[in-house]
Write a structure and sequence with these properties.
four-stranded antiparallel sheet, about 20% helix, about 35% strand, single chain, disordered N terminus, OB fold (Dihydrolipoamide Acetyltransferase, E2P), 4 helices, alpha+beta
Length: about 210
């Protein structure tokens, strides 16, 4: 019986470690790192490429659910941790269209159903449900987590001015920002328009090792 308990305990520990090691975010970061970096101006239509540049706002931004920070994208989780459990109980993400700019050009990123791997920049541990702030409780309830036990909250955001890597493909369209600059050299300048779908999602990250 003791041997059986030891085997069960070791197996549970291995499963817990593996569940943390093989998170979706690790998969997307690895995919980004392996993709060749291409200047925006050199990305052709319907060609998969990794671009890196500065996030610029296109319109209204989002408010991150746990920290209240303005952003163009967020990924938030609530992980349940106790003697018997260690798993993600609630997970939510959202994005709005934004622009990525490098030294060669601009890309419009429409990140519906994009896969996000964002630096965790806000955390909180709540021992009891009664410890949850109003926004935290709203997030946990909206994403179906049980309202009992300890929850570790974590959130990553993509903000205007951040450096970001985007992997995907798109089409070319006239760049309205270039036209607004009223520069004779801007005539005929295009921007890349990268879109995401459930079948072919964009991959987006601000992790340092995806930006080089």
């Amino acid at each position: 019986m003791l041997e059986l308990e030891l085997v069960v305990g070791v197996t549970a520990g291995i499963v817990a470690v593996l569940s943390r090691a093989f998170t979706p975010e690790r998969k997307w970061r690895r995919k980004l790192r392996r993709a060749k970096l291409t200047p925006i101006a050199q990305v052709g239509e319907d060609t998969v490429a990794r671009i890196v540049g500065t996030v610029r706002a296109l319109g209204p931004t989002l408010i991150a659910p746990l920290s209240g920070r303005p952003c163009v994208g967020f990924l938030a989780t609530a992980r349940r941790r106790d003697a018997q459990n260690d798993y993600v109980a609630a997970r939510g993400s959202n994005t709005v269209p934004f622009v990525v700019e490098d030294a060669t050009g601009r890309a419009l990123v429409v990140a519906t159903d994009a896969q996000l791997a964002l630096v965790v920049s806000h955390t909180n541990r709540r021992q009891l449900v009664s410890d949850l702030l109003a926004d935290e409780l709203r997030f946990v309830v909206a994403h179906g987590a049980r309202l009992d036990g300890q929850l570790d909250l974590a959130e990553g955001v993509l903000q205007v001015g951040d450096q970001v890597a985007v992997l995907g493909s798109g089409t070319r369209e006239p760049d309205p920002d270039a036209a607004d600059e009223a520069d004779y050299r801007s005539a005929g300048v295009t921007r890349l328009c990268m879109t995401s779908s459930r079948r072919f999602p964009l991959v987006i990250s601000n992790e340092a090792d995806t930006l080089i």
